[in-house]
Amino acid sequence: MFDPAVIGPTDDRQRPRPLLRTMLGDVLRRTRLEQDRTLADVARAARVSMPYLSEVERGRKEVSSEILAAICDALRIDLADLLAEVGSDLAASAQPAQVIRLGAITSRQAPPGGAGAGGVMCLLAA
Question: How far is Cα 30 from Cα 25, in angstroms, rounded to an integer?
Fold first, then answer.
């Protein structure tokens, strides 16, 4: 899975965050296995050593942008697709945010952009 890292001062409110190198490695390994390719095959195509690629897949090595591009080329995937999948995995592993319910605000005069049905406007806070 992923190795969590706690960043900043530790207290009860902090939650561990997965490391980017671990998430990248998970997606690279999953992609390679979906293609039914061996570690040796992809390492040879990317011109990296098999032990190094294995460590990248296990999230033990920080990979340079050049090596990451070579691995993506070897797997025949775009870097953008790799990063999108990592982002999707990160979003799926995130703990749900605390929900704060805001009351609806009624308005006699519609603001620019208009109000909802019945003159009700909902404000969202981030």
Answer: 8
Q: Specify the pTM.
A: 0.66
pLDDT of residue 18: 85
Residue 70 pLDDT > 70, yes or no?
yes
Backbone dihedral angles phi then psi of residue 106, each to the nearest 5 degrees: -90, 150
47-67 b/e with 16+ CB inside 10 Å = b? ebeeeebbebbebebebeeeb
Q: Where are the alpha helices (DSSP H) in the chain?
A: 20-34, 39-46, 50-57, 65-75, 79-93
Torsion of CA 52, 57, 59, 63, to 10 degrees: 60
* Homologous superfamily in CATH for domain 4-93: lambda repressor-like DNA-binding domains (1.10.260.40)
Q: Is the pLDDT of residue 86 over 60?
A: yes
Domain positions in the chain: 4-93
